[in-house]
Amino acid sequence: MTDYHQPVLLQACIDGLNLQPGGTYVDITFGGGGHSREILNQLEGGRLFGFDQDADARANAQAIGDSRLTFVASNFRNIKRYLRLHGVKQIDGILADLGISSHQIDTPERGFSTRFDADLDMRMNQQADRTARQVVNEYTEAELHRILGMYGEITNARTAAGAIVSARSNRPIKTINELKAALQRYAPRGKENKFFAQVFQALRIEVNEEMQALEEFLEQVPELLKPGGRLVVMSYHSLEDRPVKNFIAKGKFQGEVEKDLYGNELKPLRSITRKPIEATPDEVARNPRARSAKLRIAERL
Fold first, then answer.
1. Region class of 15: left (phi > 0), else alpha (psi between -120 and 50), else beta
2. pTM (2 d.p.)
């Protein structure tokens, strides 16, 4: 399973968790299990819960075959509920490696990659109802404009939304190549790959409710972490990094940090990293996915 997904910033993540050998930890994005394997290597006793909604990840967890590892086939937005089901109220650390795994991108039929033709799917959980095809063919022009602008950060989002609506009025857009053909004229010359990557990012985030899931997860963290427990989050674009940064700094996603009557800040977490940790040039050369990674570490007060 080594080709599944090379773990990014592995040592920095492990250091950030400040592992206690007998502690209880959660890897909320289990994927290929790269980070989890290293956590298990350093636990004596202890427990690790791995969350992932992707069926491939379950097979990877079974391959590790460690009795201290409990795999939870669910989105991490349900973290508190599933830990309670396992009788766990508080934990020593949480690791999150956000975004999409290279394995998912490299599996053509999943429809995540702009490089292959396939059905417009993009579901991380193959049992989920909403696919990229539904978003492309059923959303209104205004809704498409909103997600392309907000999640894809595309400058001509309104034009792109209009182009999709006009293309689908002839016949439904079912495949990656059909979507690219509908938008080809609007891709900035010389920057086509970046443009399509942004379109795909927008659709993927919408299909998988990634931003809502991230915020719901972060709101549960203070209650789950023991005092001194660590939150380690790796994000790959500013959309993910922003809510993480704000929640660590202020205990909320918008506005200023709240204070008590004496002017003390009311926030559950303390940032350990003043600036996010980034990959070294060496690591980026070995694993290009590390290029945009930003790692933030916080501690429960």
1. alpha
2. 0.94
